[in-house]
Design a protein that fits this description.
Helix 1 runs antiparallel to helix 4. Strands 7, 8, 9, 12, 14, 15, 16, 17, 18, 22 and 23 form an 11-stranded antiparallel beta sheet that branches. Strands 1, 2, 3, 4, 5, 6, 13, 19, 20 and 21 form a 10-stranded antiparallel beta sheet that branches. The chain has a two-stranded antiparallel sheet with strand order 10-11. The protein is built from 4 helices and 23 strands. It has 2 domains: about 60 residues; about 250 residues, Beta-galactosidase, Chain A, domain 5. The longest helix is centred in the last third of the chain and has 27 residues. The protein is of the alpha+beta class.
């Protein structure tokens, strides 16, 4: 009877450990169907405040919960220098007046270039291709701003910025919690920028368009073949560039396809080059197939690389629990064997 008692105890003990190791996975919930656990989402909610100025929008995004409050500052400008979005990140807010940002970077859209692709590679090359016309993005209509409730305590902030002629439009989205916008997963540390080009006045019948995009950063941008959202399973077929130091990074990514007159077609990004106007900055061209209505959806944001000492993967926790369980079963077997002798 005692042997059976040991066996029964072992089965119950192992079952309890298995339940313990998987209970956190079972209890996960995602009531808003955005692919993120609700408890994790609550921890990453942010408070966004906005100030409007002539030709400029100042945005402050603060971590809502937790002991450590980080800060993201965005500055959106729209003037004779184009449409620019600059992001600064501070990992911990202090009481001091001076703020030292861990990472600062920006992207600005300078002009639309009509060109004939002479080498037929789909990418604008100023020294090779035939430049038909350059249309600067230097005059804008008043901003249209719409706040939209996501939940009882979070908002989506939606800005529309049009050039005066209405040809170029930027739809800019910021969120206070994880959200899916027009099929794109967005984090509270990211900014979605939908680019819309409507009724461009083409001069050449066989031309296409390039969007001259200037890159500004304290560190150089590099190509990013596997974006953060791709690695985490929230996106596919993305390309991008990244500017990073040891612990932080700024990134600008885009889907590899755009809607061209309602048809999905490939968008190609040029290699990163030295900027025309400032040798200390960089540039790329986003290249769009010819169309009367072009719609594309880049994203920019910040990434924080956690220190190894702060990472406790769940697989490690499960391994520890499993080891304890195996140890318990072995102990039971040893006791049973001793009992047999």
């Amino acid at each position: 009877m005692k042997l059976k008692k040991y066996n029964l105890f072992g089965i119950i003990f192992l079952g309890i450990l298995i339940l313990m190791s998987t209970s956190s996975l079972v209890s996960a919930s995602d009531d808003d169907d955005d692919g993120v656990d609700d408890e994790l989402e609550e921890l990453h909610k942010r408070d966004i405040s906005i100030e409007f100025e002539p030709s400029q929008i100042q945005i402050e995004s603060l971590m809502r919960n937790g002991a450590q409050k980080d800060e993201i500052q965005l500055q959106i400008t729209f003037d004779s220098d184009g449409l620019g979005i600059e992001i600064s990140y501070e990992s911990e807010i202090s009481s001091e007046n001076a703020t030292e940002f861990e990472i600062e970077f920006g992207v600005s859209f300078q002009e639309l270039i009509e060109f004939v692709d002479l080498d037929d590679d789909g990418i604008f090359s100023p020294l090779i291709d035939d430049t038909i016309q350059e249309v600067p993005l230097d005059s804008f209509q008043p901003v249209v701003y719409t706040p939209i409730n996501i939940s009882d305590d979070t908002r989506l902030h939606y800005f529309i910025i049009n050039t005066t002629d209405g040809v170029f439009t930027a739809h800019i989205y910021l969120v206070e919690e994880f959200e899916i916008i027009n099929g794109t997963f967005i984090k509270p540390t990211q900014t979605k920028i939908d680019i819309e080009i409507t009724d461009f006045n083409y001069i050449n019948s066989s031309s296409q368009l390039a969007l001259y995009t200037k890159l500004e950063s304290e560190v150089e941008y590099e190509d990013d073949e596997h974006t953060e959202n791709e690695e985490e399973g929230y996106a596919s077929e993305e390309k991008g560039i990244i500017a990073s130091n040891n612990d932080y990074a700024g990134f600008f990514t885009w889907t590899e396809n755009a809607s061209i007159d309602g048809v999905s077609k490939v968008v190609l990004g040029s290699p990163i080059q030295v900027d025309d106007d400032d040798e200390n900055e960089q540039k790329i061209y986003l290249n769009y197939p010819r169309g009367n209505h072009i719609y594309h959806d880049p994203v920019m944001g910040v990434m924080v690389f956690p220190k190894a000492s702060e990472i406790i993967p769940i697989i490690v926790i499960i391994s520890i629990v499993s080891s304890v369980g195996i140890g318990g079963v072995i102990l039971i077997l040893v006791l049973r064997r001793r009992r047999n002798f």
